[in-house]
């Protein structure tokens, strides 16, 4: 990838909408913990916070770019299986 293409890709990612767990949960009518589990280890998710120290609980915030939301829900969507039944 050339420098111009890399810059263009970075600009696209920076201008892309980013959603909170609560926003996606509300839109999908799912519990926020379900959404958090679904996206917590997904590549491309922005994760802010700190690692657990000792016995302390780990606190972090997720921000999920639109392309990641689209990718995950496309993967979870059941496709047309009529061709498989033939």
The strand line-up of the biggest sheet is 1-3-2
- DSSP strand content: 15-25%
Written as H for each helix and E for each strand, in order along the chain, the element string is HEHHEEHH
**Mean pLDDT, all residues:** 83
Q: How many whole angstroms does the radius of gyration measure?
A: 17 Å
* Structural class by helix and strand composition: alpha+beta
Percent helix, as a range, is 40-55%
Q: How is the secondary structure organized here?
A:
Layout (H helix, E strand, L loop, with lengths): L2 H13 L2 E3 H8 L3 H8 L6 E5 L8 E7 H11 L5 H4 L1
Task: Describe the protein's architecture and organization.
The chain has helices at residues 3-15, 21-28, 32-39, 66-76, 82-85, and strands at 18-20, 46-50, 59-65. α2 packs across α3. β2 (46-50) and β3 (59-65) form a beta hairpin. The chain has a domain at 16-50 and 58-77. The longest helix has 13 residues, at 3-15. The protein is globular and about 50 Å long. It is built from 5 helices and 3 strands, in the order αβααββαα. It has 86 residues and is α+β, with helices and mostly antiparallel strands.
């Amino acid at each position: 990838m050339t420098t111009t293409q890399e810059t263009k890709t970075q600009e696209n990612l920076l201008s892309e909408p980013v959603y909170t767990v609560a926003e996606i949960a509300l839109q999908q009518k799912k519990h926020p913990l379900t959404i958090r589990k679904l996206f917590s280890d997904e590549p491309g998710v922005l994760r802010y916070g700190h690692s657990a120290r000792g016995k302390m609980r780990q606190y972090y915030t997720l921000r999920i770019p639109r392309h990641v939301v689209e990718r995950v829900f496309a993967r979870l969507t059941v496709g047309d299986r009529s061709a498989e039944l033939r």
